[in-house]
Amino acid sequence: MFWTILSILLLTYLLSNGRHKWIYILYKTLPRDLKAAWRFIKLNHRISTWVKNKTTVASSFARLVKQQPDKILFYYEDEKWTFLELELYSNQVANYFKSKGWKKGDSIGLLLENRPEYVGIWLGLSKIGVVTALINTNLVAEPLLHLLKVADCKALIYGQDNSTAVAGILDSISELTLYQFRGDIALDNAISFSEAIRNEPKEAPIDVAEITPKDKLMYIFTSGTTGLPKAAVISHTRYMYAAVGIYNLADLSPQDVFYNPLPLYHTAGGMLAIGLGVVFGLTVALRKKFSASNYWSDCQKYGCNVSNYIGEICRYLLAVHKPGTKVEHPVQKMIGNGLRPQIWQTFLDTFHVANIHEFYGSTEGNCNLINIDNTVGAVGFVPRLATEFYRVIIIRCDENTAEPIRNSEGFCIRCNQNEPGILVGKIIQGNARSEFTGYADAKATEKKILKNVFQEGDLYFNTGDVLVQDDFGYFYFKDRSGDTFRWKGENVATSEVEAVISNVAELKDTVVYGVQIPGSEGKAGMAAIVDPENNINIADLAAKLKAHLPSYAIPLFLRIMDSMPMTSTFKLKKRDLQNEGFDLDAVKNEHRIYFYDSKLAQYVPLSKEVYQAIIIGQIKV
């Protein structure tokens, strides 16, 4: 009744003021907005209750264990883990590290493939207040060492598959206690993790420091917009908020079975998917590593009616699908980000999924959006009239520097409808929906905060991403600004890759940027290197890049140049390089272009034939 009366009053006002456009917009969006408002109210009520009751992830999970001890929490290959089994395993982890003197605030790195024990380890550590740093399993050499240092890890739990990577930095981590998860011990002084916890009590640990919702639960690493990966602080409240946002806004229930082939060290796989299990009691099917050919068969095998994705996954699924055949699966909802508008409808028509819940958000940010009504290409919406309640706003920025443009009074300028700009979100500390808990590095935290945005003293989180909002309130992702691009579902910091190239090639003038490849999500890496004397050893460079960078960060293209284009103020014209990309017709003849052949692990000259094969998709990248 309240909403009906409000709608009539609003329509009357608009009609009396001749605002027919707004009447049409209201007519089109009111059902969507009412649905979202109700789900949003439930979301906020639940979070408020958790904060009031000092609920943590571990206490929330313990409640589920009491309610449904024998319900299956995880399917993993041919294993089945119940809620009770994970609780007992996590208690053993907690009791072992408590007995060794670990205490609240200490940090331990976790470098392990997807498996149920992964969750049991960080959940157990959280029961004694130890913070787990979730480490990307693709990392080697300096990037791996950086993550351990920035999270101040005093120990590392690693899988047998990652022992070679750990061995590569062994001399630099001599002070860390090493635990190998399973298998024959490959490194000197490493402790068998499985043996260490085998005989520990399965009861919950006692006499531990109080754990509160605001305490750190884990670190998840993110490239942000510049520099080396940052350790984003994930508190218990933030973890639960991520889960409750997806749960309520996507209208899920405890009876749903969720398919998760994404890595557990990432937000989508480790927070959103796992959070639905440990916070809301859903069953989650895990896969060690994503497989396009097994995606739908896994969903069928485990009875998954909900699954997650990143944009690349959707493209891969379409690529392996045989035209004219129908895939049998029970999936009704898919939740993720990065599905390109160009293949959105084709994906729906091919696989007959009822709902695509595309969302926008970052590990550490407070600008969270979700598409609840299948609007093609949209990452979510905020009605213009609701902006005062949810301050997620697009502001004008310089096209080249991505710096906010300010008016004569020194304040930022809100973009008009359909005008692209930088997305920012108002920071309200203590509010789970709008707070910014930042990074382990205080300086990195400060760089992401915009001050005095619309009034003196206000604070906003700067996403660094360019979005646009249409007349109906829908947001559409346009580009990632700054010095980061996204490839294979991973953020790549250009400065990190530039540093590696400069070191291994002994060259000073290097610039790295992302370039678009038709039919691919994100942008592939390309490096322009100044080498007028033609001294660079391309084969040696390829070998060293492979040794020092994860596979997704190795530039797919090299451009060897005589000099670097500069502005009159001696700034690199990176945008010009990006626009020219790897197009052989766009670059000067004397510039050499190379393509990284991942099968050969070598750079090969980019011929017109290879270029054309990449453009039409004959060569898979």
TrEMBL record:
<keyword id="KW-0813">Transport</keyword>
<keyword id="KW-0812">Transmembrane</keyword>
<keyword id="KW-0732">Signal</keyword>
<dbReference type="InterPro" id="IPR025110">
    <property type="entry name" value="AMP-bd_C"/>
</dbReference>
<keyword id="KW-1133">Transmembrane helix</keyword>
<keyword id="KW-0436">Ligase</keyword>
<dbReference type="GO" id="GO:0005778">
    <property type="term" value="C:peroxisomal membrane"/>
</dbReference>
<keyword id="KW-1003">Cell membrane</keyword>
<dbReference type="Pfam" id="PF13193">
    <property type="entry name" value="AMP-binding_C"/>
</dbReference>
<dbReference type="InterPro" id="IPR020845">
    <property type="entry name" value="AMP-binding_CS"/>
</dbReference>
<dbReference type="InterPro" id="IPR000873">
    <property type="entry name" value="AMP-dep_synth/lig_dom"/>
</dbReference>
<feature type="signal peptide">
    <location>
        <begin position="1"/>
        <end position="18"/>
    </location>
</feature>
<keyword id="KW-0576">Peroxisome</keyword>
<feature type="domain" description="AMP-dependent synthetase/ligase">
    <location>
        <begin position="62"/>
        <end position="382"/>
    </location>
</feature>
<keyword id="KW-0472">Membrane</keyword>
<keyword id="KW-0445">Lipid transport</keyword>
<keyword id="KW-0067">ATP-binding</keyword>
<keyword id="KW-0276">Fatty acid metabolism</keyword>
<comment type="function">
    <text>Acyl-CoA synthetase required for both the import of long chain fatty acids (LCFAs) (C14-C18) and the activation very long chain fatty acids (VLCFAs) (C20-C26) by esterification of the fatty acids into metabolically active CoA-thioesters for subsequent degradation or incorporation into phospholipids. The transport and fatty acyl-CoA synthetase activities are genetically separable and are thus independent activities. Esterifies VLCFAs in the peroxisome matrix. The VLCFAs are actively transported into peroxisomes by a PXA1-PXA2 heterodimeric transporter in the peroxisomal membrane.</text>
</comment>
<dbReference type="Pfam" id="PF00501">
    <property type="entry name" value="AMP-binding"/>
</dbReference>
<keyword id="KW-0547">Nucleotide-binding</keyword>
<dbReference type="GO" id="GO:0005886">
    <property type="term" value="C:plasma membrane"/>
</dbReference>
<dbReference type="GO" id="GO:0005524">
    <property type="term" value="F:ATP binding"/>
</dbReference>
<feature type="transmembrane region" description="Helical">
    <location>
        <begin position="264"/>
        <end position="286"/>
    </location>
</feature>
<protein>
    <recommendedName>
        <fullName>Very long-chain fatty acid transport protein</fullName>
        <ecNumber>6.2.1.3</ecNumber>
    </recommendedName>
</protein>
<dbReference type="InterPro" id="IPR045851">
    <property type="entry name" value="AMP-bd_C_sf"/>
</dbReference>
<dbReference type="InterPro" id="IPR042099">
    <property type="entry name" value="ANL_N_sf"/>
</dbReference>
<comment type="similarity">
    <text>Belongs to the ATP-dependent AMP-binding enzyme family.</text>
</comment>
<dbReference type="GO" id="GO:0006869">
    <property type="term" value="P:lipid transport"/>
</dbReference>
<feature type="domain" description="AMP-binding enzyme C-terminal">
    <location>
        <begin position="496"/>
        <end position="571"/>
    </location>
</feature>
<dbReference type="GO" id="GO:0004467">
    <property type="term" value="F:long-chain fatty acid-CoA ligase activity"/>
</dbReference>
<keyword id="KW-0443">Lipid metabolism</keyword>
